[in-house]
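Case study.
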Amino acid sequence: MTMKSDFSSSMFNESNLNYDLLKKIYEEFVNSNMGKLVIKISPKLKNELRDLIEILNSRPPRVMTIGRRGSGKSSLINAFLGSRVLKVGSVIAQTPTNEWLTIESGNKTIEILDSRGAGEGEKVRNAIHGNALDSISEAIQEKYPDTILFLVKAKEVDANIEHDIEFLNKVYKVIKSNYSDSKVSVIGVVTQVDELDPIRVYKPFNDNTKQKNIYTAVKHLYDMMYKYFDDKDLKLNVVPVSAYMHFGEDGRLIDDLRWNIDTLAEEISKNIPSQAQMAFAKMTEVKKVQSEIAEKIVNIFTAITGTIGAEPIPAADLPILTSLQITMISMVAAISGRSLALKSMKEMLAAIGINIGGAFLLREIARALSKLWVGYGNLISGAIAGGTTKIYGKAAIDYFINNKDENTIRKAVDNELMNIRETST
Ligand SMILES: Nc1nc2c(ncn2[C@@H]2O[C@H](COP(=O)(O)OP(=O)(O)OP(=O)(O)O)[C@@H](O)[C@H]2O)c(=O)[nH]1
Ligand SMILES: [Mg+2]
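After joint prediction, the assembly is written out as follows.
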């Protein structure tokens, strides 16, 4: 195979951690003069590469919340972030702005569009501020939400919510008429389930009666949405949650009544575009969400390196494989919420027994990683290239996301590397 050498010449400086290399490879692979590359890529890999590029062009997730005053919109966003970022109103209504807000907390970012719909309290406000739908339409023309969370208090699922669903229909139509190919998802959220009888049962709400009441509320909201939501082709889902958190004066979390937030996070994650998945996974801190997207990334890199290696690779082309693996590891680190810093990668590699000298240089990491190839002789096969990528990917997931202990990870890596070596010689 003849991989262009300009990949390897410039790839070992730190700025390349911004994934330029990958984008370049993608362009070579998918778009351009295939004559330069003797690699045949399957339509499946082509799609995977496209997906990867979307992930690489990562942007914050855009979540729209629709729900009556006090339904728990702000609390839910806080529950995702694990901190008191948005003002929560127990007595005084907090006014939604009907504009996109970028919320940043630590290194997490989410964009939210908060709306109360056209409920009773809204009429008064609208008399002064104009029609809620108008300002929301304006916000939607700026950018569309990845998902709409339709929040209804557990105790209000039977309180004329068809009017609220009418409003939801209008918003959904605005989105569809502006962005016909957008795949916005709609998720019903039954909030404040802790308030359902019996209320003195604490999470995980194992009590039978409580579970029954939660189920009844979910079923009722689902039936209402099924009946009144206009787009019958859209798959609807309803998730019950409790989002209450109480913070002390000093900002410390004193009472944490969060329940089932991770299920909702998974549901959202499954239904948002690849572009927003990485940032969403980072935001939620839900391990399952994080490892799912990380596995997807590892599988794509395994496929890419496997394909590159399908033609035997001269040792000189090793830097290409190594740099792809480094990119993969740094993406897994990023999903876990670490920065893309080389330092975290160095730590992870140390955990699996690869020690890099004092300098945090990408060049050093690449050299250390490629030392592991030495046993394979001059030619690297696709099975070895893909196989080792998968091993490092799994190790990165175990290290950054599952927080497994270093010995366990190292042993697994050693074993699996040995297996590959044995089966391929
Ligand atoms: N018990 C309980 N209370 C909750 C829960 N979620 C929110 N609350 C409370 O409900 C009240 C309203 O919550 P918010 O998050 O401000 O509701 P909102 O929908 O953003 O309200 P507005 O911005 O005024 O429209 C606050 O007192 C919250 O503490 C929950 O899951 N359980
Ligand atoms: Mg609010």
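Observations recorded in class. Residues 67, 69-75, 88-90, 93-94, 96, 116, 191-192, 194-195, 242-244, 257 surround guanosine-5'-triphosphate (ligand 1) (CB under 6 Å). The longest strand covers residues 108-115. We will return to this complex in the next lecture.
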